[in-house]
Each structure stands twice: as C-alpha cells, then as structure tokens.
Design a protein that fits this description.
Shape: globular
Number of strands: 9
Radius of gyration: 19 Å
Number of helices: 11
Low-confidence stretches: none
Distance between the termini: 17 Å
Length: 332
C-alpha cells in the first residue's frame, strides 16, 4: 500500500479563466500559482492542451510551459498533455528539445491521442482523424527524435536529439495503459474526468509493464480533483465552482471558472447532479483531516507512485492556501 506521507504530489492546470477576469490577468495568476507550488516542493506542474474552449487559456501549451519554467526554479514543468495527433512529431520534438535546452532536466512531455477539441476545430488544426489510429507509431517516432542522435538519419530534431525530456503516456481508457506498459513508459491516468476506469487502467499498466531503457519499474500517476480548505464546510462551498463548470461543459457552454454558490440545487436538476457527481467521482473535497482520510483510502485501493491534483478554486488566495494545506498533508 502506498503511503500519503512523503508521496510526490503535482498539479495539472488548464489556465482556467475565472469569471470576470481576462486572459492576461489569468496568465499572471497562473504564474503566481506555479511559483507557490515550486516554493512548496511540488514535483510537477503540467498544462493541458485544449482548443476553441472559451474559458480555457492553455491552447499554446508549449509557450506556457516555457513561461512558467522561466519563472520557477526546481519544479518540473510539462504537458498534461500534448495531443499528438494535432502535431507532427518533428515539431513536438523541436519544441520540447528547445525547452529542455533552456531548462535542462525540468521538462516533461505528457502525450495523449484525443483531439482536445471539437471536430470542426480539429479540421481547423489540419488534424487527420486517422492519425489517432497511428498513435503508437508516432510515439515511437517521437522517442527516436528525442533519443540518442542517429547519424544515418536525414531528418533530425535539432534541438531535440539527446534531450533529457521525460516522456509520459496519458490516458482516460485502457488503450494508453496497455501501450505505456508495452513501451516501458511512465503512465498518468486522467481520473479528474474519467474516474470509472482508473483502477482497471492502473492495474493493467502494472500487470503488463515491460522494463525499457528509460524505465525499469512501472511508474503511475493518478490525477484527481482536490478542493482543500480549512474545514469541510468551506471546502464543500468552494467545490461548487468546479461543479458549475462541469455542468457548463455538459451543456456546451463556455468554461469560465465561476465563483462558488451557496446552493447548487438552484443550478442543476436531479439528473444533472448525478451526471456531475459521476464526472467528479474521484474528487476529494474537505478540510485537512477529511482530505487525508479520503486520499489514504484511495491509495489503499489504487496504489500509485504520485498524485496529481486539479485545484479549481475561484478565489486566488484560497487557491494558493490550498497548496499550503496539500503540502502539509504529505509532509506529516
């Protein structure tokens, strides 16, 4: 059984735009958030790639990674993830090879095969729908481009070859778990929006893991929503922001992060409540005592090597304080 004490903890962020805030202010807030995580000893800070989603400002993922790496010191900065079918592997290798040259040993490359957008925007990205089917081959191509330089190859990633970029496969189903196991790569499961398959995917990954030149033992990260506050009542109140945003996602509305509300029953039907709660089934909401108990129970069911959290709290100071409380959970 994994222990919460001294377990590495990390963060996933979408550069969510709070209601009433513009994008420049949001990105400044994002930078302060990453800096606090760096000061507190969080292991990683990942940004997710999304396109044409009003309220989500992480579309130029590699650009944001460079900005945050420039304003932090120790924390690893990376993608959670780059949606590989949207990009030629050579371009990804050059971008992340450049980031690695600027911030050696601090850049992670998490890769997914979903579009991160809607079908119309996929076409605007010149995305070939069949490329998702070639995901395993493109992973191999990207590994070759970022790996030891091969003098006989005519196409090389420069920068990129001989880099220290750490590659992860991301998943919300069993496909990427199987592929990560076969390739001997670290694996991160998206429990923050696909909770039902988390345990099965993580078990499949560990059972079928094959050692590789980059990883001799399986390494699994579980991402889940965490709303941490001074007490349970405050945490439940703050959690209504993420509940409202999931509801907006299901209704096809903009995804700004709204302020919390006193009563969600005024905003959703019984059926919508059930759908939102199913989406957030792995969400941990509470004060330090409750959160610790919930996380320890989760680790007993799904032992992982690292926990990664989303932290959708509207108020910036309470959001930063939640990082303080999370760091205390694993230091005790």
């Amino acid at each position: 059984m994994a222990s919460l004490a001294n377990l590495p903890i990390s963060l996933l962020d979408l550069a969510s735009v709070p209601t009433g805030m513009d994008i420049p202010a949001t990105l400044q807030r994002l930078q302060r958030y990453a800096q606090r995580a760096d000061e507190l000893g969080f292991k990683r800070f990942w940004l997710a790639e999304h396109h044409n989603m009003e309220g989500i400002a992480s579309s130029a993922t590699a650009v944001l990674i460079g900005q945050l790496a420039a304003h932090t010191h120790n924390i690893r900065i990376g993608s959670g993830g780059i949606m590989l079918p949207n990009h030629p592997p050579l371009v990804v290798a050059e971008q992340f090879g450049t980031l690695d040259a600027l911030y050696p040993g601090r850049i992670d490359l998490g890769l997914g095969r979903a579009p991160g957008t809607d079908p119309i925007t996929s076409r605007a990205l010149r995305r070939d729908d069949m490329r998702a089917e070639r995901f395993p081959e493109e992973i191999a191509e990207l590994q070759a481009l970022l790996g030891p330089e091969q003098t006989n190859k005519r196409v090389k990633a420069y920068p990129g070859a001989n880099s220290q970029v750490e590659m992860f496969l991301l998943g919300s189903s069993l496909f990427s778990a199987q592929l990560a196991a076969e390739r001997g790569l670290p694996y991160a499961f998206a429990g923050h929006f696909a909770p039902r398959l988390a345990q099965q995917a993580l078990e499949l990954y560990r059972t079928h893991f094959q050692p590789s030149s980059s990883l001799t033992e399986p390494y699994a990260i579980l991402c889940l929503p965490l709303i941490l506050a001074e007490d349970d009542a405050q945490a439940r109140y703050l959690a209504t922001s993420s509940q409202q945003r999931v509801l907006a996602l299901m209704q096809g509305q903009p995804l700004y992060l709204p302020p919390p509300v006193d009563n969600m029953d005024e905003h959703w039907s019984v059926m919508q409540q059930a759908q939102v709660q199913d989406f957030l089934a792995l969400s941990v909401v509470g004060g330090p005592v409750s959160a610790r108990s919930k996380l320890e129970s989760l680790l007993a069911q799904m032992p992982v090597d690292e926990l990664m959290f989303t932290n959708d709290i509207y108020d910036e100071q309470l959001r930063l304080h939640a990082l303080d409380l999370a760091a205390e959970l694993v230091s005790e």
